[in-house]
UniProtKB/TrEMBL annotation:
Name by which UniProt lists this protein: Mevalonate kinase
Location of the GHMP kinase N-terminal domain: 83-157
Classification via Gene3D superfamilies: 3.30.230.10, GHMP kinase, C-terminal domain
GO biological process terms on file: isopentenyl diphosphate biosynthetic process, mevalonate pathway
Length: 319
């Protein structure tokens, strides 16, 4: 049998990270400039059930029997097999590669789980719907992250801009006009689970003021949705800056991210903020196509280890 492959994109959160864990809305978009790829091939003459998992990026090359069942990549394979009622998998090799920076706010864990779920289900001859793929990836994320909102697996599985509220069906966000973002990677790895747990401690210590910040972030997200749908892109910049101020208050930013945000703003960006789990990882800046490369250069000079330019394009709706 020939090799079979599946990919999944990275994602960025435009507005609302962390508050979304507490029921506020958030907006996220897929970014296919970075992606995870799972390639599956049969291992001829090996006994059924023998599954070899190779992920050079994390120096992994093992049979899944030798790994713990709750290893996220193993879990993605086992949950898929379980969902399809496959008692015993055919002997196969799962090769995972990814251009998504690890622990960098790009949703790499959701993307790797989703690439694997898609590839394994297709290999078994029963490709799964986006709904099921997203649900299985959420279960992997939950084991890994403790208390994820579900936004990462949703935006990555459906590959559309989403307006997301925890526990509710997501809304496809249709931008009336395209807009351009520069993404800057601080190069600092940061565990989303650890930051989410820290925010939870802050919340327990002072629920009133933390809830006030979350509500203010929710208001920003609702306004942003309206501006994106109306094509009033110029208004998004100030909302990003306001969201960033609130994230800073919540201790979710970092000196490295603050430097990048300031550099972007000083070089023509209309707004800038961290994106994703925070304390490291990436930040985003809203730019015009004319200022994009100037902002990119400024980010590199301020310490970014990598930059990308991405356009959020109008889309026609659910596919
Ligand atoms: C991570 O991409 C977004 C967070 O809000 C966590 C979550 O929603 O699960 C920080």
């Amino acid at each position: 049998m020939t090799a079979l492959s599946a990919t999944a994109p990275g994602k960025i959160i435009l507005f609302g990270e962390h508050a979304v864990v507490y029921g506020q809305p958030a907006i996220a978009v897929p970014v296919s400039i970075v992606q995870a790829r799972a390639v599956i091939s049969a291992i001829p003459a090996a006994p059924n059930g023998q599954v070899r998992l190779i992920a050079p990026d994390i120096h992994l090359d093992s049979l899944i029997d030798e790994l713990p069942d709750d290893h996220p990549l193993v879990l993605a394979i086992l949950l898929t097999a379980g969902h399809l009622g496959a008692q015993r998998l055919p002997a196969m090799q799962v090769h995972l590669s990814s251009s998504i920076p690890l622990a960098g706010g790009f949703g790499s864990s959701a993307a790797t789980a989703i690439a694997i779920i898609r590839a394994v289900s297709a290999f078994l001859g029963r490709p799964l719907s986006n709904d099921i793929v997203s649900e299985l990836a959420y279960r992997v994320e939950r084991r890994q992250h403790g208390n994820p909102s579900g936004i990462d697996n949703t935006v990555v599985a459906f590959e559309q801009p989403v307006y997301f509220v925890r526990g509710q069906p997501f809304e496809t966000l249709i931008a009336a006009r395209p807009f351009t973002l520069v993404i800057g990677d601080s190069g600092v790895q940061s565990s989303t689970a650890a930051v989410v747990a820290d925010v939870q401690r802050l919340h327990q210590a002072d629920p009133e003021s933390i809830d006030r910040a979350f509500t203010a972030i929710g208001d920003i997200v609702r306004q942003a949705r309206g501006y994106i749908q109306a094509g009033m892109i110029d208004n998004l910049g100030e909302l990003m800056n306001h969201n960033q101020r609130l994230l800073k208050e919540l201790t979710i930013s970092s000196p490295e991210l603050d430097l990048l945000v300031e550099a972007a703003l000083a070089n023509g960006a209309m707004g800038a903020k961290l994106s994703g789990g925070g304390r490291g990882g990436n930040m985003i800046a809203l730019v015009s196509p004319q200022t994009a490369s100037r902002v990119e250069r400024a980010l590199i000079a301020a310490g970014a280890v990598h930059t990308w330019i991405t356009t959020v394009a109008p889309i026609l709706g659910p596919t």
